[in-house]
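Sharing a chain and its predicted structure for anyone who wants a worked example. Both blocks are below, sequence first, tokens second.
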Amino acid sequence: MSLEINLQNKVALVTGVTDGIGQGIAKMMARAGCVVAGCGRSRPDSDGAQKFSELVEAEGQEALYVQADVTRREDLDALVKATVSKWKGIDVAVSNAGAGVFKGVAGCSEEDWQANLDLNFNSHWRLAQLTKPYLEAKGEGVLIIIGSNHAYSTIPGCFPYSTTKAGLLGLVQSIAIEWGPRVRTVGLAPGFIDTRQNKKWFGSFPDPDQERKRTEQLHPVGHLGSVDEMGAFCAFLASPYAGFATGTTYLVDGGRSALMQDS
């Protein structure tokens, strides 16, 4: 018998589903059997919101999209309430929404710092608080917090983004030990993932193809990560096969962090 991740009849809530990793998570959670509620700042009739619904429905599952700014607690509360109203509970919450705030230590203003803190740290804590009663009610709820490889090592100019990502390691630990065993909490720290934003970054170089090839060669696996790979990892973490995993954050970076010195 083949190994199968079966999350049939589970309700997954995923933030930041209009692009990138969030769409990969929504797609693969649906493929595993979940109905999926998602949010983004875009309107419901936007291309990103429509794509989210199409990806979930193509896997034979129902989708619910709620326009929400995750830096606003009232928006997150509305998302949670809409999900519970439709499906009577939440089994898995994936706090994914975030964005790069790269200013550097000296160049970071108070406004930059607060914006980064609200988006890349506070939003995860707030979503955790708001979903806690529903995850606990299941007796085996799963909370997954999406961080970044920048939590472990970073490069010049990535402050204050890297600081909040490091803070998420502690958030995962604290929630796991305070809410277990009824809520199992894990983190996922992706490395360089092939998203639209990273394609734009390659496009900023004189020779985008050469820069992409150079970057791929810095990864022992020989390629960049995909959003589907990150989504599949989340489906695994939400499944009973990961039932002994809590309080830790998994660094999934194609081996990039194993390379001591660039060559």
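Comments welcome. The longest strand covers residues 183-190.
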